[in-house]
Amino acid sequence: MKYSITLKSERLTDAKCVNRLQTGITKAIIEMITAARYRKGYGRLERYERKLSCTVLRRGRASNRSSLFGDVARRYEVREIEKLEEVATTFMASVPGPVTLNGTKRALGGRVSLDSIERYSRYLEEPYLLFFLNTHSFSAGKRERSPRKVYAVDNGLLLVSSHHFSSDRGKLLENAVFLDLRRKGCEIYRLMDKKEVDFLIWDGTEPVGLINVCLDVSDASTRAREVDGLRRAMGHFGLDRGLIVTLNHREIIYVDEGVIEFLPYWIWALQRMKGTQEKT
Prior knowledge:
Elements: H1 14-22, H2 27-39, H3 45-76, H4 81-93, E1 97-99, H5 101-107, H6 114-125, E2 130-133, H7 140-145, E3 148-152, H8 155-161, H9 169-183, E4 187-193, E5 195-203, E6 206-213, H10 220-237, E7 241-246, E8 251-255, E9 258-264, H11 265-274
Parallel strand pairs: 6-7, 7-9
Antiparallel strand pairs: 1-3, 2-3, 4-5, 5-6, 8-9
């Protein structure tokens, strides 16, 4: 396989590192580059990977503070940039997961008011840095009271904002699926009715798709949880198909409600790019 990314010198400049981060460099790309250079005989892999990773993380965090939050603060005339940064970092650490204003306030030790957290969340959402997914309900009041699930504009941003994402590829996978669905213009909701479904896709006045995301379904309890959630939703909405996006597992199973397909992310993403799947 040929890669379109090349490195012309072993030592990356700070500007190049920051630029790569801002355009979405991810752990997978770092691993691909280092492995390719090792095969070409550019020195020991361990030394190069350690140098690149340290530089990426250091410059990425500096870039977040000076550029990302600075731009948002200037745009909305935020004076307390430190509080904006705290709120944004707390949200990003929760990706992809449910968040509430009160929960965020508690996580920050009460240092930021509820009004400020709500305002900062809008400031981060309007320029598409973060996205907040509503929980589906036919009741407007219940939708307002239910936690919203937070996603980020880029997995590279998550990797440099928190160490834990580098070891939790499941969260990165779910964030990637959300971004693909959003780029397609889908109307998406989180479904929480005793059992959770990651994405309920709506078209006009009716539901058209159900998607769960699970990196590894080899564990029996994990597999059962993902399947049961889809089955319950399929029965509730009268849908005969559910989808589980995985890292590399492919399978089709037949249940009383219809068909549930396990599909590797790369296949699902390619199918969407080629237009072979209208909604899911």
